[in-house]
Amino acid sequence: MNAIEQLLNHPDVRTTPLSDGLKIRNPATGDTLAYVRTTSVPQLNHIIAKAQTAQTEWAAKSALERADILWCWYRLMKENKENLARLMTMEQGKSLAESLGEIDYAAGFIRWFAEEARRIDGDILTSLKPTQKLMVIKQPVGVTAAITPWNFPAAMITRKAAPALAAGCAIIVKPASQTPLSAYAQAVLAYRAGIPQDLFAVVNGKAADISNTFTQNPIIRKISFTGSTEVGIQIFRNSAEHIKKLSLELGGNAPLLVFDDADLDKAVEGTMLSKFRNSGQTCVCTNRVYVQAGVYNEFCRRLAVQAGRLKLGNGLDKGVQQGPLIDADAVAKVEAYIADALEKGAQCLTGGRRSPLGGTFFEPTVLSGATADMLLAREEIFGPLCPVFKFESEAEAVAQANRTEAGLAAYLFTRDTARQWRVAEALEYGMVGINTGIISNEVAPFGGIKMSGLGREGSKYGINEYLELKYLCLDIG
Ligand code: SIN
What we know:
Elements: H1 3-7, E1 13-14, E2 22-25, E3 32-36, H2 41-60, H3 63-79, H4 81-92, H5 96-116, E4 123-125, E5 132-140, E6 143-147, H6 155-167, E7 170-174, H7 180-193, E8 200-202, H8 207-216, E9 220-226, H9 229-238, E10 245-249, E11 254-258, H10 264-276, E12 286-292, H11 296-309, H12 328-343, E13 347-350, E14 365-370, H13 375-378, E15 385-391, H14 394-402, E16 409-413, H15 417-426, E17 431-434, E18 453-454, H16 459-462, E19 467-475
Parallel strand pairs: 6-7, 6-9, 7-8, 9-10, 11-12, 11-16, 12-15, 14-15, 16-17
Antiparallel strand pairs: 1-3, 2-3, 4-5, 5-19, 10-18, 13-14
Helix pairs in contact: 3-5, 3-6, 3-7, 4-5, 4-7, 5-6, 10-11
This protein binds succinic acid.
The site of succinic acid has 11 residues, from loops.
């Protein structure tokens, strides 16, 4: 067995076809990588019942013991970084450099929450009566469920599983059907680290059946979902009957504002990183770039040069910076946005078409002359297409940036300190990058406002999503 096969040594992963299984393909080559067993609804209910027993035992362990096991999982992730990254590139398509970065990012959540496990502290409150002691303790919410996307096949799992396990919860993860192999590989390492199999289960199958079981089974006390706003609304609605705790990390429509006084090199570099990370397939990717009139032409020129230099190819090949898009629908969507924008007056500065590499490769594209009536101004592009809008005043830029129901991430580039504060506070978003296009890390609270979701992941706040407060009133009179 080679190192990657060892990572996939899970009973639900096969190299031979399964009658009711999922076929997992490499989006860069079309090759079949593996087959994955699907879980029926009765099987899932059984897994949930077993998780309940496992959770009680896990919660009874000391915080130190849980932390030590998470540390061990973290170390195994780091030791297996290269193979986890290769596996991710094979099933998701992103460049190996990005996959290596994602494994570090994913492992970072495990380390962070191993540390946080030891700081789930309660409170003693100042009592109204001398005979009463008022206390607050924090307890795990119980059995939890996660539904994770294909764009970050490792980090979106650890960002949910690590705080859940640190808090003393069980977690059942449903990864995206395009990228379940990274989820199984992480589970294999978690089991090696000492995390019980019933406590951290990975399941696959029909998304609607699994999601409905999560919302309908009363044992599941919390669901954490990363994905589209449409599905998030469905989960929110379906969770009402059992009043489940929810974390929803939904779609974005991130604006990036470049003012006349910005350091243009920095602004172009930040836009490149924010827009073309993962080939434009992240929720926090810049969707709309607004540039002040004085630097508009120069910014567009420099951005187009940089985007045109990005090297496309199989993410495993040396020097490749952009992999394929996840599937044919993603390509069709980007093409439709470009066609609509060109029809409404945009100019294509670079890219604009499918790559000669074929498959789902698409050329990194920059459009100038973008306007508010274009579809790409309202919808999340989720691809390597960067539209650039022109603005005159700060007030106009802020108004345009906020003209969306989404509220996940926003970015601005300016050297003026007063403007940095003023605009950052005026932007209606959960996260704002100032003079940077990369904001995600385990220390910071990730999450959005408005239609972009509920709750925060990572950071000192993230563990609270897996804890309940209990108030104790002790009368000693
Ligand atoms: C996402 O796109 O869902 C997550 C992006 C990130 O963690 O930076």
